[in-house]
UniProtKB/TrEMBL annotation:
SMART domains reported for this sequence: AAA
Identification of the protein by name: ATP-binding cassette domain-containing protein
Pfam families according to UniProt: ABC_tran (PF00005)
Domain (ABC transporter): residue spans on this chain: 2-228
Assigned protein family: Belongs to the ABC transporter superfamily.
Nucleotide-binding as UniProt keyword: yes
UniProt keyword annotations, A-Z: ATP-binding, Nucleotide-binding, Transport
Domain of life: Bacteria
Species this chain originates from: Jiangella asiatica
Length: 298
């Protein structure tokens, strides 16, 4: 469980994180979404005690990170896969951490196997790893202490499609076994496939927080029929608010039964009647990306 309460961080005139509160609960994957410079990394750094907040606080399983006796046994963190000792081999990196955490070398072997680095790869220096291999090692490192919480900053960076699919299945499995997962991304599509819950941050502030299905389908219904003009008239006559879409359909605020019955009564053949795509969230996300990206300004 991760609990964030009124977390705020100012850097001079910039408020990188502005009164942010949310929870990541056991058994779920929370996608922490926001454009570049939105405040994702700063929030994560505060959660794991690397950056002191200006105000507010956060806990992991009810305890402030800095007060956890052996933090790696509670929360596995992957903030920057490239920040690993380049001169050590993959096995050495994990082996040293295992000694610090008090876990066995057998666990090191298991984690290397889990992330697909067992064999020749584990004997290569991390400096010679691709970014995707570093992400795999970073995930093995995060899982090493058998924590109940995982917090990962952009873990899909550098992974190929097969690697992204694999990463999702590891995270999904971790959550399905009761673990808490928080992962950040600046790509909605990337977290959509794995997250149950979404927290969206823009310009340091939370702009959306809720179940993924609710947020993605807050755009109402999508309907498309054979006779476009007639369908539009039917929707108007039924008192339903609708917007034409570029592909000849309509985004409708209403329930499927009302739309379906109204179309049937008018003898209109419907080709599609379904929840709208992630239009609402995606549009909001695009707006954030165009207006709130502070990377350019920074
Ligand atoms: N150490 C720092 N000193 C000054 N400003 C900082 C510092 N760290 C972050 N910032 C600023 O805080 C804001 C949020 O940055 P942060 O790295 O948390 O965003 P992010 O959402 O993780 O972005 P990205 O996806 O690009 O990593 C940015 O405007 C950034 O320039």
């Amino acid at each position: 469980m991760i609990t964030v309460e009124h977390l705020t961080k100012g850097y001079g005139a910039v408020t990188a994180v502005d009164d942010v509160s949310f929870e990541c609960v056991p058994g779920t994957v929370t996608g922490f979404l926001g454009p570049n410079g939105a405040g994702k990394s700063t929030t994560m750094r505060m959660i794991c005690g690397l950056t002191p907040p200006t105000s507010g606080g956060s806990t992991v399983n009810g305890v402030a990170f800095r007060d956890l006796p052996n933090p790696g046994r509670h929360i596995g963190v992957l903030l920057d896969a490239s920040a690993q000792h380049a001169g050590r081999t993959g096995r050495e990196v994990l082996g040293l951490s295992a000694r610090l955490l008090g876990v066995s070398q057998q666990r090191v072997t298991e984690m290397l196997e889990l992330v697909g680095l067992a064999g020749p790869a584990e004997k290569r220096r991390v400096g010679n790893y691709s970014l995707g291999m570093r992400q795999r090692l970073g995930l093995a490192h995060a899982l090493l202490g058998d924590p109940t919480v995982l917090m990962l900053d952009e873990p899909a960076n550098g992974l190929d499609p097969e690697g992204i699919y694999w990463m999702r299945s590891v995270l999904r499995d971790f959550a399905d076994r009761g673990g808490t997962v928080m992962l950040s991304s600046h790509l909605l599509r990337e977290v959509e496939a794995v997250a149950d819950h979404l927290v969206v941050i823009g310009n340091g502030k939370i702009v959306a927080d809720g179940a993924k299905d609710e947020l993605l389908h807050s755009g109402g219904l999508y309907v498309r029929g054979l006779a476009t003009d007639a369908l539009e008239k039917v929707l108007v006559d039924a008192g339903l608010s609708s917007q034409p879409t570029r592909d000849g359909g309509f985004a409708v605020a209403g329930d499927a039964e009302t739309v379906g019955r109204a179309a049937a009564a008018a003898g209109i053949v419907l080709l599609e009647l379904r929840p709208a795509d992630s239009g609402g969230l995606e549009e909001m996300f695009l707006r954030l990306t165009s207006n709130d990206s502070r990377k350019d300004a920074a």
